[in-house]
Amino acid sequence: MSKVPGWLAGWGEGLTRMSERLNERRERPDEPDDMDEPDERNRPEGDGPPAAARNVPAPPSYAPAVLPRPDPVAAIPWGMRVAAEAGWRLLVLAGTLWVLMRIISAVQLVVLAFVAALLITALLQPTVARLRRLGLPRGLATALTAIAGFVIMGLVGWFVVWQVLENLGDLSDRVRDGIDELKVWLLDSPFHVTESQINDIAKNLSDTIGTNTEEITSAGLQGVTVMVEILTGMLLAMFSTLFLLYDGKRIWNWSLKLVPAQARDGVAGAGPRAWRTLTAYVRGTVLVALIDAIFIGLGIYILDVPMAVPLAVFIFLFAFIPLVGAVISGALAVVVALVTQGVFSALMVLIVVLAVQQIEGHVLQPFILGRAVRVHPLAVVLAVAVGGMTAGIGGAVVAVPLVAVTNTVVGYLRAYSKEQVLKGTPSPHGATALGSSPAVPVEPPTREVP
Questions:
Q1: What does pTM read for this prediction?
Q2: CB crowding 107-138: b at 16 or more within 10 Å, else e
């Protein structure tokens, strides 16, 4: 027989076996076919796990379960996350405040002059408005008010200097007599102080002054520099006051353009209220300081203490520094009375000062300032301390009105934002409307400073 039929028989047997294998795979569809399995190199990304991962056997039933690792954010406690979020925001605010304070300290003279101009404008602006209502043009009303105000301030300063120079000789004689009386009292006192010890103290004071001549001279030169800066600040304050009195509304409207549009309405409403608070504070403080100066000055004059009028003027000026100014001016009056008139007169001056200050704190300030300026005493003390440490006497003077204005602005903006939220909330219906509280009354904002 030929070999061809044997070859055909082998080929037929191979086809038969292949057909049997295909039938077996069709009966088991869950088992992957090696022929149909795609190549791992050509498998598209994300199309299921690779073949090696699919062939990994499942862990036995007795193996412990391994929990997945949590998200790091979810692993941090809620309180710590809140503290971290608040912390970095506070750091940003502190850095911004520090930079702002550095800028203000670099231009401290300009800032204090402008703030002084604001205070003077708050005092004089009602007079300008009254003259305009009488029919005077804006320029003439501004000129008359500014000239009258500056002339009165200049006369007060000249009067104080004149009175001090006029009574300086008498005061030096009184001081010398007081030192002699103190020396006699020390010699006769039970402290057993000898005259040689008193002379040694006087000699030490003289030597100290002689050895510190250079420091005293440099202090005098610094005093000249300070006087030049004061004169510069006064001129800058005068020019700023003129422009604020004449063109204050236009300056305010221009300033509103620098505010973002979303917050412009709220700022436009807070500005006039802040200005009214500042005006009420300045006018009330001037009236209270004038009453203190008159009554304490009369008490000093009746007790025959020298320089009663200059001391009254000092009391008036120091009254613009809350708490601290009253203590300093009262202590100055008591020291002058002690040196010139003795212990009894000093004690009587102290009683007069304390009585007038108690009446001021409990009667005058609540009655005159009222609800327009309401600042907690602790806030006053802290504001004066921070202002004095930051910018000296000028900072102590402007600290309290700044806190009062800030309090007014923050209160208005809080009420305004609440009103906006209530306006965006749908109105209640049915029984819900009966228990709903009315919206916070907020006056419509205005863009002009009164």
A1: 0.64
A2: ebeebbbbbbbbbbbbbbbebbeebeeeebee
